[in-house]
Design goal:
Order of helices and strands: HHHHHHHHHHHHHH
Structural class: mainly alpha
Number of helices: 14
Radius of gyration: 21 Å
Strand content: under 5%
Mean pLDDT: 86
Number of strands: 0
Largest sheet: none
Amino acid sequence: MEKSGKKNIISNIIKWAIIMVILVIVYLWKRSEILEAIDEMKHHPFWVSLLCLAATMLHFVVEGRIIHNMTMYEKRQMTWWESFKCGLYCAFYKFISLGSLSGIAEVYYISKHDIEPGRASGITLVQYAYQKLGITILGTVSFICLYFSGVSTVEKYAKFGILGSVIALGIVLLLITLSASKKFATLLIKIVEKIFDKILKKYKDKSKELIEQIQTFNDAGLYFWQHKILCLRVTLLKMLKMSLWYSIAAIVVCASNKANPLECIALMATANMIGTVMVAPAGAGTLEFVVALLFAPLFGATSATVAIMYRFYSMVVPFLFGAFVFAADKKSK
């Protein structure tokens, strides 16, 4: 455990170092646009910040509702307030670890509310699948609507949208199949065992952990698939939750440009879908890159404002609120 903890710390330091290097490079490369964006933010009316904050807090209100629903068949269902705090607690760990510890934090927080760690792990893994499903549905539908409505940047970079949609749909299809089919899970476990036996012999000890996660995810998936209304409800809530964050783009753009709010939300949904299938620590730089492609030709320097404000209200603000939950949890111990 101590060795694993040291590895996590080193991994997080490396991730943050990469992020800082990326930020410095981006600042030097796009200095004028960033300064223009900061100046634009200074002149935003107060209601812009207020609405962005409201969107973020409503995001976690819905997240609390999701966790509350996911625990409804346990011996003790978490209350909405406990679930709301769980979401913020995970946001705290997501920020400091750039995403790598948020799942572990959720398992811990759920299990401390009289729910078995195995069940908590299953709930967390299935939630991840629903999150991917919600992002993919919103992103794919938004991309199709924007393309056929003739939005110039979406037409220009249609190949990125198609590729992003295909990859995201492939990931979702894999996750759904794994969660709903015992045969597929068994086959995947056999493949993993062969890979570690023949190719990755040095890391054979890791295979047990991976196989255990596959089994946990499959068991939890099969359990939740029995409650199809719950599955549908959680998927819709995930879509609502993400839409609240996407609305930050609409708030920022409409504050200084004549724009259709729904079009801005759809653009952000498309950007986020493409960004999530690009590899980077916590998606750093990937989302900003796609936002620049889709928003900059339409709204100029406001695209940089969108990226900055979105990151601030989706990562920094939840981290700050989550810090209070983290501190209260430590104090209660």
